[in-house]
Amino acid sequence: MAEAASTALIAELESAVKGGSSERRLQMLRQVTDLFLSDADRLNENQIGVFDDVLVRLMEQMEARALAQLSTNLSGSSLAPKETVRQLAYHQDASVAVPVLARSARLSEGDLIEIASLRGPQHLLAISHRETLSEGVTDALLKRGDTRVSHTLARNTGARFSERGYAVLVESSEKDDALAEKLGLRLDVPIKVLRELLSRASAAVRERLLKVAPPEMRARIQAAIQSVVEQIASPSLAPVNYAESESMVLALNRAGKLGDQTINRFAIQSEYTHIIAALSLLNSVRIEAIEPLLANPRPDGLIVACKAARLNWSTTHMILRNRPHCRPLTAQEFENGREVFDALSLSSAQRTIRFWSARGSARKADAPDTAVAISDI
């Protein structure tokens, strides 16, 4: 380092800070920054600390534009003065904070978590672009971040996620196909998370993932999809004997009483063997074609079956609301279901049910086929 030059600059600091003009202070800031960057790789921590003290004092009365330039200049230095970088990163003006938030290696995990909990969306987005991110930081970002933050994190290969973080992303991806695709293409996504993601994803998302995934991911995604299909298709409980229910609904139908009012009552009373038998009879398909639809986490297939059976939305809603062994649907999911129900014609619904029945067994009545059939209508 040019000792004489640095000593002269530091000697001028007091006069520049105390009585110098804004132009003089800005000139000093640039000179000190340039001197530091030119000699940074030859400085020890004590010497860097001297520069830190000088820069912090000069920053006190600087405008945001000058600080933004300082932030840009220091963001790529692995030896940048720590306190200077921290003050820049915590700055409320995003133009000042963003460069160091996105790149500087001098910020600690604690700094990043605190900034993510205090500052605005541009600060959070900048952090989400960092080359590496710990689970603690991504948790903080996902707690307050917007859609842009979620998408950036999902495609950031250096970001690590906790179970909670993955759960947040998977839940958000259910209504965001682009996010689902980004998350599904991560090489480090745990298989359990991938299965959950694919169980909620539409058939279109699954198809696109298989199409664009690199070879090392394609086999993994295909295996996860098959696992989801088998889980949905395989009965988790002992086989059910539908003989009594089939006899009862057949008698009700012959008497002209197998309609919305009766099936609505079945749903309220959780008599789902009766509902399955009724939908089987009204759709003229086997029990095995209807039974998997009740356990499918996605409600679309059951909506098609109800529409094809000429039930109204009120009855369909009640069936969906009281399904055993299924998580409760959200208000938004019910709204989406109503839109599917209203848009679906009777002929299309009946054609879809016949298609599923033709597959030949309950094991083949899987979620991907359900979604594809609906999307093709």
Automatic annotation (TrEMBL):
InterPro entries per the UniProt record, alphabetical: DUF2336
Protein name in UniProt: DUF2336 domain-containing protein
Lineage: Bacteria, Pseudomonadati, Pseudomonadota, Alphaproteobacteria, Hyphomicrobiales
